[in-house]
Amino acid sequence: MTGPAAGGEKIRAPGSLAPLYAAGFVTAFGAHSVASGLGVEDHNLGFSLLSFGLLLAVYDIAEVILKPVFGALSDRIGTKPVVVGGLLAFAIVSLAGVFATNLLLVGLARLGQGAAASAFSPAASATVARVTDPKSAGRYFGRYGSWKSLGYALGPLLAGALISTLGLPSLFIVLAIAAGVTAAWVVIAAPAPAVLPRQRYTVADLSRQLTRRSFVVPVAALAIGAAALGSAVGFLPVAGQTIGLGTLASVALVTVLAVTSAIAQPVIGRLRDRDRLSTRAGMVGGIALIAVSIGVAASLQGPAALYLSAALLGVGIGAVTSLGFAQLAIVTPADRMGRTMGTAELGREIGDAGGPLLVGAVAVSAGLAVGLAVLAAAAGLVAVVVGVFSGNGQPDVEPS
Questions:
Q1: What is the pTM of this model?
Q2: Dihedral pair phi/psi, residue 333, rounded to 5°
Q3: From the centroid of its chain, how far is CA 310?
Q4: How many separate domains does the chain show?
Q5: How far apart are CA 215 and CA 209, in angstroms?
Q6: Containing domain of residue 380, as a range?
Q7: 373 to each of 231, 293, 347, 358, 369, how far by Cα in Å?
Q8: Does residue 249 lie in a domain region?
Q9: What is the pLDDT of residues 230-251, one digit of tens each?
Q10: Is 197 a member of any domain?
Q11: What is the pLDDT of residues 179-194, one digit of tens each?
Q12: What is the number of alpha carbons within 13 Å of residue 36 lying toward its C-beta?
């Protein structure tokens, strides 16, 4: 038997998942608030775009390395201790970031935040998967993703306001408080799934799991969604500045993206749970919408085009995120849920880091519009691959 039901646990009241949703909010808030706040201050194109891409990516570099490690650890010692420990570490590193006085120190602070998020992010998603009914996976992962999107929405606005009025240290203080309060909430109210007996797995077993269609297809969708999100959070405000939008109007592009994503994810998740939208159709459609939206942004035709791009991009990212994680939750045995979610998020973080790097690297020689166009083409290619390899929309199920 696969999925959460394999753990033999009762489904918790939805309210008990709220601290886990808040943890998702913190990781999203922390991932892009610093970078997006700095992005509106960078008016120079060219090499500065590559530097900015590196700043966006550094948070994710730690996550790429550590998420599978902490995911596996949560299977061994329980998800709740890993969530709490990661949040506390995030709070401590954020307090250290108060003293960051140059780009290098900001980068190091973001690296530390990424390492802490590597612990609580996959453990939180694994907990959601463990304590909810597989038939409602879309609904609950839609809510989890919606809270993350709220982090993306509020992060840029709050970052811009704090940095412009009180300076960068104030943003790190807010991040530390948010993580500390959430850690306390998790301790008090979050569910604590039992640690399950684990079978002995070989390297060959792991290799088979990571190459199964049921794993590769949703992770590919998650990766391109994350690449689009990471690039949009950093470069949509830069694009706004390029066409003459003010600081607030440029940052608001990211807020529009995040709000539409927050609205779309629970809706798409419910459609999937009610069999009114197949996983295959939802993921392919979402990726195609991402490609079209980035293409519209690349045209740099004016404010209306950028805001339309941001809104549609939010819907596309919301579709692939809610459906991708829900599918992984369904096909994964409960005793390895943390490892699977951590490894899946590794693929997602590669996209989150690689997207900004790709756009920035191309923009060095060809300009921002061409950089965005290349990312749009990559999304279109992934849509074709996911459509072909997802078969009939019911991926093969991993045996327990």
A1: 0.78
A2: -60, 145
A3: 16
A4: 1
A5: 7
A6: 13-190+203-389
A7: 12, 10, 22, 11, 6
A8: yes
A9: 888 778 888 888 888 887 788 7
A10: no
A11: 999 999 999 999 888 8
A12: 35
